[in-house]
Specification:
3 strands; 138 residues; 3-stranded antiparallel sheet; alpha+beta; 2 domains; Alpha-Beta Plaits; 41% helix
Length: 138
């Protein structure tokens, strides 16, 4: 049998943690695709950044950084903190004020086309070097 929720002195049910967090979020900062706003060295640091953002009404999401998505790491390993595009400027201001991030925007990584060109160039250089070595041996 399920018990009814405890009632406070004011006659209202206590506020859950989820509802308390949802009340802090500003709806205008929740629109758009998710973008990376900061990186953290571990889960505890990522949750600290998330709490800083929530205090200013910016909802955020934490995910494991690319290449570190291994369950064996548990709370260890770097994390990415993501926010909606509409909350990006506010989030950057909050994190700059708290000295969590630097003034330069985070790098987006290597473009796939540039990576492909670099790999093809390295493969071609290796093939030419191998051909020259084989010609010298003959």
């Amino acid at each position: 049998m399920r018990r009814p929720p405890a009632v406070s002195e004011a006659g209202q049910a206590p506020v859950s943690e989820t509802r308390r967090r949802a009340r802090k979020i500003k709806p205008q900062l929740t629109e758009g695709r998710l973008v990376r706003v900061a990186g953290a060295r571990n889960q505890a640091e990522a949750e600290f950044i998330q709490a800083l953002l929530l205090e200013e009404g910016v909802p955020s999401l934490v995910r494991r950084s690319a290449g570190f998505d291994v369950p064996d790491f548990l709370a260890a390993g770097p994390r990415d903190v993501l926010v909606a595009e509409s909350g990006l400027l506010t989030a950057r201001e909050v994190l700059l004020e708290a000295a969590v991030i630097g003034a330069e925007p985070p790098s987006a990584g290597v473009a796939p086309a540039r990576l492909l060109v670099a790999l093809l160039a390295a493969f071609a250089a290796g093939a030419i070097l191998l051909w020259v070595l084989l010609e010298l041996v003959r």
